[in-house]
Amino acid sequence: MVAGLAAGPLISELWEHRRVCSKNYDSVEAALASFDVLDAAPTGAAPTGERDRGCTDTDDHHATISRSYRLPGQHGSPKDVESFYQDLALRNDWTLLPTEGSADEPRCMVKEVEGAEVSLNLWFDPESEDTFEVSASTWPC
Predict the structure, then answer these.
(1) Quick one: how far is CA 32 from the chain centroid?
(2) Strand 52-54 relative to strand 46-47: parallel, antiparallel, unpaired?
(3) Is the pLDDT of residue 1 over 50?
(4) 32-70: pLDDT as tens digits
């Protein structure tokens, strides 16, 4: 009986995490509904697998949907990839926020959907210059 009572708050917390993550996934999916930027890639880029979904932060419940690509060096630089996604995002109702830090930092792209701000992010693998990930997330810029 005591074990059941002790597990109650944990189960409640897990249920709440799942509920909030589901709502946040809905916001990310809505941001991608008109044009799924995660399926778009620069010329020469090839997906390295299926989409990933994550909502691992049990405090803030931020949801992320991402896709990784491989872009052989002769097809473009990280700046070319950033430019590709910025142009694509702007044509599809995303907003480019100003950079607060260095001018070399990628600029943040956001879309307001159902009262939530969804950000579009790029990450370049420091171990493999020809691999990058594009993600849409409820994580703030």
Answers:
(1) 11
(2) unpaired
(3) no
(4) 888 888 999 998 999 999 999 988 766 667 889 999 999
The DSSP element (H or E) to which 65 belongs, if any, is: strand 64-70
Q: What's the structural domain count of the chain?
A: 1
Structure confidence by residue, pLDDT tens digits, 62-114: 889 999 999 887 677 888 999 999 999 999 999 988 767 656 566 789 999 88
CA distance 129 to 70: 9
DSSP run (H or E) holding 80? helix 78-91
Cα 132 to Cα 47: distance, rounded to the nearest angstrom: 10
- In whole angstroms, give the CA distance from residue 132 to residue 58: 26
Q: Are strands 131-137 and 64-70 parallel, antiparallel or unpaired?
A: antiparallel
Q: Of the candidates 54, 79, 81, which has an alpha carbon nearest to the alpha carbon of residue 138? A: 54
- Quote the tokens at residue 102: 């260095």
CA 55/CA 53 separation, integer angstroms: 7
User: What's the pTM value of the predicted model, to 2 decimals?
Assistant: 0.79
Domain that holds residue 50: 2-137
Instruction: Return the residue matching tokens 């709502």.
Output: 23
